[in-house]
Amino acid sequence: ENYEKYWDDISPFIKFGCIKDSKFGEKMADSILYKNLDGKYLTIKDLVKEEEAAKADSTETEDKTEDAASAEEKKDESSDASKEPEKTTIYYVTDEIQQSQYINMFREAGMDAVILKHNIDNAFISHMEQKNEKVKFLRIDADVNETFKEKEEDDEAAKEQAKKDAESLSEIFKKALGNDKLEVKVEKLKNESVASMITVSEESRRMADMMKMYSMYGGGADMFPVSETLVLNANNQLVKFVLNHKDGENTGKICEQLYDLAKLAHGSLSPERMTKFIARSGEIMMDMAREEQ
Q1: Which site from 33, 62, 67, 260 is most exposed, i.e. has the minimal number of CB atoms within 10 Å?
Q2: CA quadruple 268, 274, 277, 283: dihedral sign
Q3: Residue 59 has pLDDT above 80, yes or no
């Protein structure tokens, strides 16, 4: 349609109008479009229907695999949860290149997200959340979605071992990176090829974005630093190597490389870290060349 054809050009002005004028926003409520990862334009109602349908399919699959006892327990939990309205999560992307790793994971899991990369979108989604209490927007790199994780272990001994491994990996990476304040999380992801990722909580990132805007008018951009989490995949072979070779000759180098690769997949490195990353990459290739000789 012609409306969809021109939407990308006119959307910033329409969104600004919705924020500034509530009556205009009410009239345009069903005409605001969101472009998904496949380039298809959807309304907020379409997005909510998609998410609810996906959630229903997921719940149905889980119910088929549960036994009678766990099903009854889940029923009680859902009854308690129903006291508060459950929100529908709409995932979004702000940079298709920087967030390509997360986009690929979404595609592999059959999940969708919308593209919101204009400067006004940060304020607009906050506005939409206020107007639609049952909807919340979450950037795809805000957390590791449950869909990407393996089912949790039922065995208590396995759980305890996983906890110890996570603590051990956290200590190894903090030491290698020289950062005691680094938040490290260990997950068992279905995709074994993914070694490490960086996630930033939605609240922390939105606050940082707001402060960047505030700094343009003389405020302090660093007043609320972004809270990052390094997510390690316990199923990845490199992560397993680090865990099993805590004091290895190359362990520290691998930790730094995994962290820098995660940072690059999430955004960019500081000039200092980029210089070290390039030098370290050269060293690793030289080590590989020596092994081939």
Answers
A1: 67
A2: positive
A3: no
